[in-house]
Amino acid sequence: MKKYILVLISFLIVCFETFAQESLWEGQKIISPEVHSDNTVTFRLEAPKAESVQVKGDFLPDKINSGIADMTKSKNGLWEFTTEPLDPEFYSYSFLVDGLKINDPNNVFLNRDITSLHNVFLIGGGRADLYKVNNVPHGSVIRCWYSSPTLQMTRRLVIYTPPSYESSNADYPVLYLLHGMGGDEETWTERGRMAQIMDNLIAQGKAKPMIVVMPNGNASQEAAPGESSLGFYKPETKLPKIDAKTVFSDMNEAKKLLPLLKESNQIIKSFPDIVNFIDQRFRTKKEKSGRAIAGLSMGGFQSMYISKEYPDMFDYVGLFSAAAFAPNVNVPPFDNVTEKLKVQFDKKPALYWMAVGKEDFLYKMNENYRRKLDENGYKYTYFETGEGHIWKNWRIYLTEFVPLLF
Amino acid sequence: MKKYILVLISFLIVCFETFAQESLWEGQKIISPEVHSDNTVTFRLEAPKAESVQVKGDFLPDKINSGIADMTKSKNGLWEFTTEPLDPEFYSYSFLVDGLKINDPNNVFLNRDITSLHNVFLIGGGRADLYKVNNVPHGSVIRCWYSSPTLQMTRRLVIYTPPSYESSNADYPVLYLLHGMGGDEETWTERGRMAQIMDNLIAQGKAKPMIVVMPNGNASQEAAPGESSLGFYKPETKLPKIDAKTVFSDMNEAKKLLPLLKESNQIIKSFPDIVNFIDQRFRTKKEKSGRAIAGLSMGGFQSMYISKEYPDMFDYVGLFSAAAFAPNVNVPPFDNVTEKLKVQFDKKPALYWMAVGKEDFLYKMNENYRRKLDENGYKYTYFETGEGHIWKNWRIYLTEFVPLLF
Predict the structure, then answer these.
(1) ipTM score assigned to the predicted complex
(2) Nearest CA to CA, how far is A316 from chain B (Å)?
């Protein structure tokens, strides 16, 4: 012990000054958010000069001022707010300081939501335990690039391989998992807790070990913002400003949306490039029975068309809050929808799974699509939740869909 | 074209409402930071109620109020500040709004620095072009977990494989790259721009294709904050509060540092677990001539001791601003330092490389260590820069060290 202390005296000189420079001492000793044992949560911010501090979060019911709650100033300029007991969930929030939206400086954990960042925290229990890093075998998450001959681009994707992959020689089935509009290849791992959900479901024996592939569903993008040769640009919607009142009467307004549809078209056309890359790089099951495709919102739209366009490629299809519409036009791959759908269902997919929330603005569209499937006697499985077009639902759908695969 | 527009009308209904819910319209149309063609940079923040807004960044010379510059309020409550022309570099900054430190809400790109987050931006040109994502072949970055029998833990690490790895059957040399105190397995990819530097140096033919392995150098940690079963806890320094004035006279104060030294001891002792894992999982060159180890600050200290403790394991050693001290005590692995160093150098390492900045508080310690090497006629290569114990230097050292390997 004494010898250690001799070492420490020299070590100290190093440590003490290093800390000063590496900001180890920086940061207030404030804990925010603090999750209490009864699942109430306290948020704190030290802002003595602020006149108003609010917390804005997806755990706040609409009745409290549309998801915004006033925080209370105590002595020393510390503002606080404590929630009601919250259900288990992966939540996000921001602060409003005199109207300026900021992140919680005492919480380094953030999720990007297209153009903005939100702090996150997790309340465990029930299904939300699947979203936690637990003491179970962990898969690997790989960021790599593939070459798309169709798009003539090199593009980034994120791949999950299950814990057993490295220690076995087996071929694995593959789930292709697509994001929604404004998302990218990082979205399912970041907001969707994909790796944690897969690790936990596999550990519980509820899901078969599988590879999960998350491509970038925006055909004009090489990679997520900050990860491409465009550098650190400001992410923006690609949707041009549209006059919602005239867009249905004014073709010039409607035309502004053309690039969006063309992008999905490109993703559908180039999708075999991704499958070929994955089949070359990984030990995969290369037949239809070993492949699934699923996506949320725009990714659901893409999954619907990709699985229809290549009816021998995917045996399992998941449409999560999908933009499930079937235009009656003759532009490939949107042509001959009825015929193509018949071909797909004549081949009897192992699973055609649809899920949507009761309050989703796409609920009606999904209902219409289900009716069309019913009329033709096409078999599908339907799963309905409460609430709407939100990540809470898409995490639920993933945990429900994955155990049904392979 | 007309057919597309018909599709768009239905598509629009989907898009327009989706955007509202996925916050695609959120965020002000303010660009911050804006890098101008002359490499001046303008920062902007809309905060009409604030009395004072400042920018704090590592690009501001000390003469401007210790790295803090006042921003100027213009009409509409928009605050602005424009820098002098800046040298090419990967910079970081925050805002101070009435003294409250916040991140720039118009910049979604952040780096974590232990307990806090800072916005980042990059000015290209010169060496900083190595820090950019360029149109060159990209390697893969893998987050995975290994089992350490010595530590009796499963631990996370980050691995870079070069672009050619997947298309070849060759065995690759491996660089083990260690972070400093307060860092973790994410630090070299996040703040060190490791993947970009490797991609670019390999594409230019200046570095041999190699695997780079970045373990977590804190023996008690499973993984980086937020990535372990501890959940989203607040990262803190493990260094207890120490009275700098009495620590040299008061053994009770010095003892508080014991856990830190023991942690590095554990990393040194368990390091073969990592090498064994890598050699099993990847196609590696398994002899000394195919292995390098380097680290910054505490990671330099660890590299120095690991390479000395296992003199047949690493042929290339890099000490970046290392805590290069050699205590004269008999606690393994800090015992018999002189003898072990002799064994290491008798085996003539292919490269023993040291780098430090002139203003580094460890400069003197490195000078003393070099003198000791000189006295014994031990061959090493020395590289000196300006400035001190900062990431700018560690990125430079990586770009200088890697071309000398293998």
Answers:
(1) 0.92
(2) 24
Render each residue's pLDDT in chain B as its tens digit; 406 residues. 455 555 555 555 444 444 434 344 344 589 999 999 999 999 999 999 999 999 999 999 865 556 999 999 988 899 999 999 999 999 999 999 999 999 999 999 999 887 889 999 999 999 999 999 999 999 999 999 999 999 999 999 999 999 999 999 999 999 999 999 889 999 999 999 999 999 999 999 999 999 999 999 999 999 999 999 999 988 876 565 666 555 545 666 666 667 777 889 999 999 999 999 999 999 999 999 999 999 999 999 999 999 999 999 999 999 999 988 765 556 778 888 899 999 999 999 999 999 999 999 999 999 999 999 999 999 999 999 999 999 999 999 999 999 999 9
Structure tokens at A158: 């994120």
List CB contacts (< 8 A) between B4 and chain A: 258, 261-262, 329, 331
Closest approach of chain A CAs to the CA of B282, in angstroms? 10
**Span(s) in chain A for CATH 2.60.40.10:** 27-123
Please judge whether B145 and A138 are an interchain contact, meaning their C-beta atoms are less than 8 angstroms apart: yes
Query: Are B49 and A100 an interchain contact pair (Cβ–Cβ within 8 Å)?
Result: yes
Give CATH superfamily name and number for B14-123. Answer: Immunoglobulins (2.60.40.10)
Q: What is the C-alpha separation between B23 and B25, in angstroms, rounded? A: 5
DSSP reduced 3-state for B87: coil
Q: How far apart are the C-alpha atoms of B126 and B116, rounded to whole Å?
A: 29
The architecture (CATH level 2) of A27-123 comes to: Sandwich (2.60)
DSSP state of A66: T
Residue A390's alpha-carbon distances to A56, A86, A113, A385, in angstroms, are: 16, 17, 12, 11
Residue A311, min C-alpha distance to chain B (Å): 23
- CB < 8 Å to B108, chain A: 112, 115-117, 225-226, 234-235
CB contact under 8 A, A229 and B12: no
Tell me if the domain spanning A130-404 has CATH number 2.60.40.10.
no
Check B5 against A254: CB less than 8 A apart: yes
Residue B283 tokens, joined: 């196609």
Instruction: Name the segment(s) of chain A with CATH classification 3.40.50.1820.
Output: 130-404
Closest Cβ–Cβ partner in A10, A227, A257 for B8: A257
As a whole number of angstroms, the distance between CA B157 and CA B144 comes to: 6
CB B80 within 8 A of CB B74: yes
